[in-house]
C-alpha cells in the first residue's frame, strides 16, 4: 500500500533539511552553466561547502543547446584534460579541435558535481546580494516562479564567505553590485566594461584572464567574466568555460 501523505512529507522534510543545511556555506554560486557546474565540482571535491542556485528548471545553461541547436560542442587542446576529468567522450575533428556531445557533457558535469557534494537548488533566482563593510557576504534569493509572475513576495538570505557570478552573458550578480555599490568594481573603469563581439580565440584566452575577484568576496567566471571585464564572446567552443570554472575554484580556495 502506498500512502500519498508519506510521499509529501518525505519530499517537504528532505528539501527543507537541505535548505536549512545551506543557509550558511563557504561558497555560493549563481548559475548552473558549464562554468558554474565546473567551479562547484572542484570546490565540493575539495570539501568546500558549496551551494549553487539556478534560475531554470534544467541545468547546463547554454551547453545543451550546442551551436544553433546542433547538440555538439567544441573544445580546444587546453580543455581536453577537463573533458577527461569528467569522463566525457569526445573525438578529434581536426588537430586541436575536439567534439563532444553537449547533452553528455552537461550530464557528466552535473553528475560529478552532485556526487562530489555540490548542493544545487534549481528554480531559484539570486535577486540581490548582502554587502557588509564593502564586502559581499551572501545572496538574497527567491523562487524563479515568483520572479516570473512578478509577485510582490519578500525573499530570504543565504550567507557565504564568497559568491561566484556564473550567470553567463548577463552577469547579473555583478550588475546588481555595480548598481548598489555606485560603480566600485575592481575593473579598469570601476564599472562593467561590457561584452565585445565574437572572437573565439581571444575570448577563450581572456575568459581565463578575466576570471577573478570583481568586488571584495565576489568572483566572476565563464562568460560573465568576459562580459564584466570587456572580453569578446566565443560561441559554441567551451574549453574556456570549463577552465574558467576550474580556475575560479582554485582562486577561491586560495582565499577561503
Ligand atoms: O549562460 P551559461 O551557460 O553560463 P556560462 O557557464 O557558459 C556560457 C556558455 O553557455 C555560452 C558561451 C560560451 O561557450 O558563450 O553562452 O558562462 O549559464 C548561466 C546560467 O545562469 C543562470 C541561467 O539560467 C543559466 O543556466 N542564471 C542567470 N541569472 C541567474 C541565474 C540568477 N540571477 N540566479 C540564478 N541563476
Q: How does CATH name the architecture?
A: 3-Layer(bba) Sandwich
At the third CATH level, what is the topology name?
FAD/NAD(P)-binding domain
Report how far the terminal alpha carbons are from each other. 50 Å
CATH superfamily: FAD/NAD(P)-binding domain
Structure in words:
The chain is α/β, with parallel strands linked by helices. The protein has one domain: FAD/NAD(P)-binding domain. The protein contains 9 helices and 11 strands. Strands 1, 2, 6, 7, 8, 9, 10 and 11 form an 8-stranded mixed beta sheet that branches. The protein has a 3-stranded antiparallel beta sheet with strand order 3-5-4. Strand 10 and strand 11 form a beta hairpin. Helix 2 runs parallel beside helix 4, helix 2 runs parallel beside helix 9 and helix 7 packs parallel to helix 9. The longest helix is centred in the first third of the chain and has 19 residues. The chain starts with a helix and ends with a helix. Ligand 48F binds next to helix 2, strand 2, strand 7 and helix 8. It comes from candidate division TA06 bacterium DG_78.
Amino acid at each position: 500500500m502506498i500512502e500519498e501523505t508519506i510521499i509529501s512529507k518525505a519530499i517537504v522534510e528532505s528539501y527543507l533539511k537541505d535548505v536549512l543545511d545551506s543557509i550558511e556555506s563557504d561558497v555560493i554560486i549563481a548559475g548552473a552553466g558549464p562554468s558554474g557546474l565546473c567551479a562547484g565540482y572542484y570546490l565540493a571535491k575539495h570539501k568546500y561547502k558549496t551551494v549553487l542556485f539556478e534560475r531554470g528548471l534544467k541545468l547546463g545553461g547554454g551547453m545543451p543547446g550546442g551551436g544553433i541547436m546542433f547538440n555538439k560542442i567544441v573544445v580546444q587542446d587546453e580543455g581536453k584534460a577537463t573533458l577527461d576529468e569528467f569522463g566525457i567522450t569526445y573525438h578529434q575533428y581536426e588537430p586541436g579541435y575536439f567534439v563532444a556531445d553537449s547533452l553528455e557533457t552537461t550530464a557528466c558535469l552535473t553528475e560529478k558535481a552532485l556526487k562530489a557534494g555540490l548542493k544545487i537548488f534549481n528554480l531559484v533566482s539570486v535577486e540581490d546580494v548582502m554587502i557588509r563593510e564593502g564586502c559581499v557576504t551572501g545572496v538574497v534569493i527567491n523562487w524563479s516562479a515568483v520572479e516570473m509572475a512578478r509577485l510582490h513576495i519578500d525573499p530570504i538570505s543565504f550567507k557565504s564567505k564568497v559568491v561566484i557570478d556564473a550567470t553567463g552573458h548577463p552577469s547579473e550578480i555583478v550588475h546588481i553590485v555595480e548598481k548598489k555599490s555606485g560603480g566600485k568594481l575592481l575593473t579598469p573603469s570601476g564599472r562593467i566594461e561590457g561584452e565585445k563581439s565574437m572572437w573565439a580565440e581571444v575570448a577563450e584566452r581572456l575568459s581565463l584572464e578575466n576570471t577573478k575577484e570583481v568586488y571584495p568576496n565576489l568572483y566572476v567566471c565563464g562568460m560573465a567574466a568576459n562580459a564584466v571585464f570587456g572580453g569578446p564572446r566565443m560561441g559554441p567552443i567551451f574549453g574556456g568555460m570549463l577552465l574558467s570554472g576550474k580556475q575560479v575554484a582554485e582562486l577561491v580556495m586560495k582565499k577561503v
